Amino acid sequence: MALIVLFVFKTPLRKLVIMGLDRLKRGRGPIVVKTIAGTVFVLMVATVYNVVAIQRRWIQETAEVNPTDQVLVAKHLLEVSLMGFSLFLFLMIDRLHYYIRELRVRRKSMEAVKKQNRVFDDSKSPAPEEIKVLEDEMSKQRGRISRLETQLEEKTKEVSSAEANAVALKKQSEGFLLEYDRLLEENQSLRSQLQSLDRKFSFSEGKKVM
User: Fold this and answer.
1) Cα dist from 206 to 152, 174, 195, 196, 198, whole Å
2) What global pTM score does this model have?
3) DSSP characters for 137-176?
4) Mean pLDDT within 157-168
5) Are 29 and 82 in contact (CB under 8 A)?
6) What angle in degrees, to the nearest 10, is found between the helix axes of 29-60 and 67-124?
7) Could you report the per-residue pLDDT of 93-134, keeping only the tens digit for each?
8) 20 to 30 Å CA-CA from 76: which of 94, 152, 174, 201?
9) Do 89 and 37 contact (CB within 8 A), yes or no?
10) How far apart (Å, rounded) are the C-alpha atoms in residues 32 and 14?
11) What DSSP state is assigned to residue 186?
12) Cα dihedral sign, 77-82-85-90
């Protein structure tokens, strides 16, 4: 009961009790405690069995109750009460210790999370000097973007004019090719006419000689 009271109220003694129970639950401590608790439970069951056996004997016998049996029953009942109450208190102490330890672990984890969030918030919020530097950098980048956009427009105009010139040159070359083909055909026709004239002239000269 004193341990339970120490668990309920937050005092420096509670820390010492929790530390002692932590050390008790390390190593072979839990096995020893469970063995003792099992032994006490077996003794309690045996004592209850003895009380029940004595009461059955009283029911079966019609004679007066033996004072010795009365003393034994009272003794066994006290032992059963003591052992049961001890096991109950042991269970309460174990559960209280477990919940207090879990509560401490969760509080520590929550404090660690809060510290991490604070550090993250501090690192996330930049200083005024950093904001000024970032604004200057943004203005510089915007100026470069505007210059690049104007250069891009100029290059686009040059490319469009070059494409128009290329189309005009292509059409002009096609016209030149057509004119060349026409002149070539005329040249061939003129050559054929000259060849026919030469033949006629040679033929007429041959007749004069004869």
Assistant:
1) 79, 48, 16, 15, 12
2) 0.44
3) HHHHHHHHHHHHHHHHHHHHHHHHHHHHHHHHHHHHHHHH
4) 85
5) no
6) 150
7) 888 878 888 887 888 888 888 887 776 666 555 566 777 888
8) 94
9) no
10) 23
11) H
12) negative
Query: Residue with structure tokens 């891009």?
Result: 152
What does the alpha-carbon distance between residue 128 and residue 108 come to, in Å, rounded to a whole number?
Answer: 34
| HSE toward the beta carbon, residue 160, CA cutoff 13 A | 6
Distance CA 12, CA 106 (A): 20
Picking from 31, 30, 3, the residue whose alpha carbon sits closest to that of residue 17 is: 3
pLDDT category at 63 given cuts 50, 70, 90 is: low
pLDDT digits (tens, 9 = 90+) for 76-85: 888 888 888 8
The tokens 């083909």 sit on which residue? 181
Amino acid occupying residue 177: L
Region 193-210 average pLDDT: 70
Strand, helix or coil at 99? Answer: helix
State how far the Cα of 9 lies from the Cα of 52, in Å rounded to an integer: 41
Q: With contact defined as beta carbons under 8 Å apart, do 87 and 37 qualify?
A: yes
